[in-house]
Each structure stands twice: as structure tokens, then as C-alpha cells.
Amino acid sequence: MFNVFGSKNVLGVDIGTASIKIAEIKKGSPKPKLLNYGMLEASAHLERPNEAIQASSLKLSERQTAEALKELLNQTKITTKDVIASIPSFSSFVTFFDIPVMSAPDTQKVVSFQAKQYLPLPLSEIEIEWIKVGEKDTEEGKKQQVLLISVPKEQIIKYQNIFKIAGLNLKALEIEGLALARALIGSNDTEPILLADIGCYNTNIIVVENSFLRYNNFTDYAGASLTRAIANGLGIDARRAEELKKNRGLLAAAAEAELSTLLLPFLDVIIREAKRAINSYQNSSGTSIKKVILAGGGANLLGIEKYFERETGLEVEIGNALTKVDYPLELEPMAREVGNTFAVAIGLGIK
Which residue windows are coiled coil (predicted)? Predict the structure, then answer.
């Protein structure tokens, strides 16, 4: 399910809740190169949420998604066929547990046996993958910490069908959290860092330590929640509300102060989820999180960085996946937005 392959050019495909983002990456040294990128946004969902591409309560449409992907490929003139695609948090199940240190073959047997007690579906209906993410000393001896990932086979078949219809070769699937960590965490970042990927209909919250994913969760409060708050509060349509959110954000002038008043309660919900993740991880690991990285389209909200800093008391920055790749100089004026918005797609492409 998560195989690495040797193609020279790779297309990272991030099928989100309201957009499809792609990044064409050429393998190289010392850095991979971003050759091209593109995004196709679904706008109808602003007025009718059931027309989102997918969500925790909305299944992915194979034919419509494939056609949208083909349209995006035509617009960008991308010809690379080999794809690594992301699986959203709400379509996967991720958990962590400790077992005694043992050989890889023995670990495989133990994980396969223990997985039954953690997973919401029978093993016959899911694909599982495990990753050793660390070791720790306990009163019972040295234990290894295991990340267990499972995805329903039904969901995997959907993705296989989408890319087949689109004329692409699906080489690997990977959960969003792993791609996000690869794109935004530097090799020198050994201390735990919280990443909040604020999409349209869900916010993915993860903790990464020593380049390993150590915590993974999500909330349905995200960018669309903020848009609806503005629309309902000001009595305007969702498209106008989306424009105000993007153009004013939390930095609205005094005459538009009501905008921030409408946004903050919903943004506070996302921050509370981030704080819960921080407290949970710090209590279980005994290590402190001192830094937060924001990503996704929602992280482009003007003023969000400073507000997160004030409410969490931590260092906060906007992620930039372009630090992991070489890219054309003409992208420089847009580097912050592109590197943040396309973080998952770039993380997939540099796998």
C-alpha cells in the first residue's frame, strides 16, 4: 500500500475535500525539482456542502473525481503518469502502541495479531501497514513504539479506479500526515513539532518528533466553518463570504471589526483541538512541544499566525514545502502560498 518506486518523475496528487492539488516532481540531487503544479477547486460546495469532492460524511465519487483530475492535467499540460496519492485522515485509521523490542519478522507477527483489538473493521476488509517510530525504556524493559495505519480496501479500490479512469499509474498511497511531515519538517528538527493542516472541511493535526509521525487526529472544523460563520453573521452568500475571508481575514479594518468577531469562535475550536493534541502528547511522551507549523489553504488566513501564537504561547510559523525542492525563480513572489497550500502534494512527490 505504501511502496516506494524508482520513477524519475513523480506526480504527487492530493485529493482534498474541496480541491485537487498536484505537484510534478523530478528526482534529483541535492534536491528534487518542482517541475509543475496545479489546483482545481470545486466552488459549488460553498453553497451546497454535499457537492464537496469528499468529506468525513461524504463518499468520494470515482467518475467525477477522475474527470476533474483529467481536466486539471489538461490545464497544466502535465504528462507524468506515475502517481503517489494521499489518503485523508478521515478515510484511514491511525493508532500507536508499544510492544517489546524484537526482530522485524517477529514484530510483523505481533502487530498483525494485536491489530485486531485496535481496528474498527475486520482484517479481511482493510490493508494495514506498520512503522517503528521509536524506542523507550519502561519498568518492563525496552519497548518499541509502533505506528499502525489501516485503510479500508473499499477506499483503496476507489483510488485505483480513479487513477485508472484518469489514465494514470497509481504507484503508492500514503496518509496525508506522513506526506505533510516529509514536506515541512527539516532533518535537523529533532524536537516534537505540531502541524495543523487546515483544509476546507477538515483540519489534520499531527505531531512529528525525530522525523517520525507520533500523533495523528483531525477535526471537522476548518476553512468552510469560517466561511459559513461570515455568511450567516453578515447575511451574505457563501461566495462573498469566502472573498471577505481571503481578502480581510483577521486583519480587517476597524469598520469591518465584526469579521474577526465572527471568525474567532470557530478558529478557537481548531486551536482547542491543537492544544488537546499538545497536552495529550506531552503527557504520554514526557517531552514538550514548543513549535507549531500551520499548513493548508486555511493557513493563508491573514493574521492567523499571530493569533495562534497568542493563544498557544508557542512559536508559530506558516509551512513552506518549497524549502525541500528546487523551483523556478518566477515562483518566488508566491513561494509562501504555494509552499504552504501544496505541502501534501509536494510531500508525496518527494517520497
Answer: none
